[in-house]
Amino acid sequence: MARKWRCSLRCRVARLSVRSPADIRLLDRGLSVGEGLAAFNAAHGEAGAIASFLGKVRPDGDVKALELTHYAPLTQPGMESLAQQAIARFSLDGVLAWHRVGVMQPGDAIVLVAAAARHRRDAFDATMFVMDHLKSAAWFWKRERRGSDPDGEWRWVEPRGEDHADLARWTTPD
Amino acid sequence: MARKWRCSLRCRVARLSVRSPADIRLLDRGLSVGEGLAAFNAAHGEAGAIASFLGKVRPDGDVKALELTHYAPLTQPGMESLAQQAIARFSLDGVLAWHRVGVMQPGDAIVLVAAAARHRRDAFDATMFVMDHLKSAAWFWKRERRGSDPDGEWRWVEPRGEDHADLARWTTPD
Amino acid sequence: MAVRILFLGPLSDLAGAGEREVAGPLDWDGLLASVGPQVAGQLRDDRVNVACAGKVLADKTALAAQDGEEVALLPPVSGG
Amino acid sequence: MAVRILFLGPLSDLAGAGEREVAGPLDWDGLLASVGPQVAGQLRDDRVNVACAGKVLADKTALAAQDGEEVALLPPVSGG
User: Fold this and answer.
1) Chains A and D touch (3+ CB pairs under 8 A)
2) How confident is the model at residue D79 (pLDDT cuts 50, 70, 90)?
3) Taking 50 as the threshold, does the pLDDT of residue A5 lie above it?
């Protein structure tokens, strides 16, 4: 399946290929949102519904930089397992979850999730399911630097209460 | 706002501009999904969360073509009003809703919806709200042609029961 | 000048045409009498709406179309 | 060979370092004694997890790390 969509630089639609049914990546540099979605779309030509989510660093007040650290022995297996849970729970053609680590600037992409399905409800639910788990149940820690001093102090970001509420709804029967 | 993001062909990120806060289009030819999302993303650089949905013609069984007709005096005003409802109901930076009309082939994009917000819940909810209304409460009628005969019979597609259930959830208090 | 009746979606198949013109003014009973029994049967379904001059009527039986206006018959939609 | 203790996220600030090595084997009481009072206080919080050899422990007080294994102290996450 993956090989079918691998294409050369001459291919205009998708310059990279995604793995099917799950394409999970930890990226330590820029996340190519447009190419990722185009490749995902191309890999799931039969899906009637593709939902996606892009999370970016917000230029909140005076936030100048954001750093995401993770624990490698757990992060990638955890994301793979999360994708398999989504595939088991919803009727999906495929799922993509790409997550940045390292230092980012305001406007940079942090996370890209997409789900392809026959019907839109499964695509939406799977995308939200993966995002809610990435926010509260994946092994990432976030800190930010504010103000004008390039050597200014980094502060750890606490989990938001809403994020735990968002996660809890997947453990109660719908 | 729109002018700020208007850019020449040399601009690699977004070759078209989107209107803010709502970009509503009825398109009678190909829908440029990648360019649309890139332009929407560029127009909402401050949004932390961008959700999107792409609906495509499914190569279901022997479906060879799909035609969407609409009633122009109602369709565009209805979609504009829908976008305003979404903006009033959710905390959004902006919303995009592009809908094809005319004859399409399997794999072609029918509808692209995107919402930009501070937090992901608003972005997801607004995208689903707009999609659920476009499926069941916008002035489109769909028919399809199956089988190998290029002059074969067109059959009208009935609304799905799930679509009405999806719509109903927006009229009950959450 | 006349009233133009538009048959949208599957109603165009039942009517055998996408549109027709009738003499105005046109009210609900006149509409039912103008469109043939099959379309008239559909019009009595609550899910079928009627627009006049670009506005969907809250009560379609209150139709009062004048010469030059367009009446659109809108069956249940199936978009996206 | 020794047991390597990793302090993830904000715990690295409390520990004053990202990691340290202690002699193995290492159990729960040994861990609490090795990490200083501030980190030990955090470890007693239910929301702080412990992984050993790449697996999160269902019961962190059952820690039994051998020489050469890595013990990761995982505070509440804030991803995406």
Assistant:
1) yes
2) low
3) no
In order of A40, B8, B43, the CA distances from B13 in angstroms are 19, 10, 11
Q: What are phi and psi of D57, to 5 degrees?
A: -80, 130
Q: Which CATH superfamily is domain C3-74 in?
A: Beta-grasp domain (3.10.20.30)
Residues B44-64 have pLDDT tens digits of: 988 999 999 999 998 877 889
Instruction: Return the structure tokens found at B156.
Output: 């009208």
* SS3 assignment, position C40: helix
Q: How far apart are CA C60 and CA B20, in angstroms?
A: 36
In whole angstroms, give the CA distance from residue B155 to residue B157: 6
Containing C14, the helix (H) or strand (E) segment is helix C11-15
What are A67-93's pLDDT values in tens digits? 999 999 999 999 999 999 999 999 999
Mark yes or no for CB contact C54/B73 under 8 Å. yes
- Residue among A71, A135, A157 minimizing CB distance to D8: A71
According to CATH, the topology of domain B18-168 is Aldehyde Oxidoreductase; domain 3 (3.90.1170)
CA dist C26 → A104, C37, C40 (Å): 66, 17, 14
